[in-house]
Amino acid sequence: MTEQTDEPQPRPARIESDPLGPGLYLVATPIGAARDITLRALDVLNAADHLAAEDTRTLRHLMDIHGIPLRGRRILACHDHNENRQSAAVAAAVAEGRSVAYCSDAGTPLVADPGYRLARAVIAEGGKVIAVPGASAVLAALSVSGLPSDRFIFAGFAPQPAGARRKWLSHLSAQDATAILFESPRRIKQTLGILCEIAPDRHMVMCRELTKKFEETLRGTAAEILAQLPEAGPKGEIVLMLDRPDMTAPADPAEFDSELRRLLENLSLRDAAAEIAQRYGIARRKAYQMALAITNTSSDRKE
């Protein structure tokens, strides 16, 4: 997710230069601390016939830090705006028996980063795609969150329009799994504000600047986390996680009715019923009938 900031260091002694077999090597790179790169990743970057990167300057800086020479190799730029076009060149190189190492800016390629089209193109031509695993902001955040990790959903970035964001967050917060999303520091307050309304009692964890100097983890409800943020908003890369909802219906029918009415203020009848069904583990049809009854009652009172 971010650029590495470590100063160049002497080249490690154990970088092997054995030839690589033909294929596309998806190389995970550090999300902050440059020393989090794996020895295998260094070997692959040193030995690959061709190099490709979301940002050529970021990869060149990482290679300089670890003392890996280019030896005349050019780094092919492959990002969101040109991935379709560059995929053909990468697939052709693999088909000719070459090895290509691809790195996104930070973390694991394809995880909210480019690389998907590259992999599809190579597979379509019968080539091999090889993972070189390593750092991932998703898993790093989940590991320190203290939230259940047996079942989780990574949802990427929330939509920018406010209405679409609210609907997206409502659906995500209703899933029976720990929910993980990336967020911009410019929009995190808006997102937490929406979550204050749709999941006010839900426990959440916000990780900022993972593995870097000013790493920070905040825990609590959306309102509690929001209260800890500076007036101007936070800085850096953010991962936000939501605990899974309580899937048992409230013992008090009035509480259940109140929750459904609250959802109907912002969601369509169908969406409110679907969310309440997932949240409390009841049949969607039953939830829909309850929501319909509330809507009809409200209409009768207006008349």
Automatic annotation (TrEMBL):
Function: Catalyzes the 2'-O-methylation of the ribose of cytidine 1402 (C1402) in 16S rRNA.
Span of domain RsmI HTH: 251-294
Enzyme class: transferase
InterPro entries associated with the record: 4pyrrol_Mease, 4pyrrol_Methylase_sf, 4pyrrole_Mease_sub1, 4pyrrole_Mease_sub2, rRNA_ssu_MeTfrase_I, RsmI_HTH
CDD domains, per the entry: RsmI
Cellular localization per UniProt: Cytoplasm
Domain of life where this protein originates: Bacteria
SUPFAM superfamilies from the UniProt entry: Tetrapyrrole methylase
Residue ranges of the TM segments: none
Organism from which the protein derives: Paracoccus isoporae
Protein name: Ribosomal RNA small subunit methyltransferase I
Recorded catalytic activity of this chain's protein: cytidine(1402) in 16S rRNA + S-adenosyl-L-methionine = 2'-O-methylcytidine(1402) in 16S rRNA + S-adenosyl-L-homocysteine + H(+)
